Amino acid sequence: MSKVLVITTSLRAKSNSDILASRLAEGAKDAGHSVECVSLKGKEIKYCIGCLTCQKTQKCVIKDDVPAIAEKVKNAETLVFVTPIYYYEMSGQMKTLLDRLNPLYPTDYKFRNVYMLSTAAEDDETVPEKAVSGLQGWIDCFEKAALAGTLFCGGVTTAGEASGKEKALEEAYEFGRNLK
Asked: How far apart are the first and last CA of the chain?
């Protein structure tokens, strides 16, 4: 079984994506995976300044919470990014984190399978396409990794609403059970 890292990127209290991420983690644990969840709530994540020092040193010159998260990403075998969809794209904090994971590029990272769980007020199946494309662009830079699956749970607007959506909760659980 895999060492799974679930990164939740919503900053909202009673986040729908956090509720579904918790259910996903339960499914992954029940399938025998080792699961760690990291929330970006309360984390200091500064913007990449594009200095590329990290390509030589495998360390970022910026002092914030990202290096600790990057170490967890590097050592996980399976990654799950969980994001609300804002304006048909991943959350800004998720994109900022992906940019800051640049020090991992030249390292011997362990992750192979990358997944995305996304939520949105709208429920049309096309809603997460640009967010998935953005994550795929990041994955494409890591030749040993692949996008292994996505789950979109739309139709959740108000904080905490996902806790009453049995179908979405079951889908998230099964998604977690089927992680590789």
From this structure: 8
Alpha-helix residue ranges (DSSP H) falling in 2-65: 16-30, 54-57
Hey, which CATH number is domain 7-41+51-177, 3.20.20.80, 3.40.50.360, 3.20.20.370, 3.30.365.10?
A: 3.40.50.360
Strand extents, DSSP E, 31-144: 34-39, 78-84, 113-120
Question: Which segments of the chain are extended strands (E)?
Answer: 3-8, 34-39, 78-84, 113-120, 146-154
Query: What would the pLDDT profile of 22-74 be if each residue is shown by its tens digit?
Result: 999 999 999 999 999 999 999 999 999 999 999 899 999 999 999 999 999 99
Which residues make beta-bridge pairs with 151? Answer: 117
Give the position of tokens 């995976």. 33
Beta-bridge partner residues of 150: 116
pTM (two decimals): 0.97
C-alpha–C-alpha distance, residues 172 and 65, integer Å: 28
What is the Cα 54 distance to its own chain's centre? 22
Measure Cα distances from 155 to 18, 66, 117, 160, 163 in Å: 15, 31, 14, 12, 12
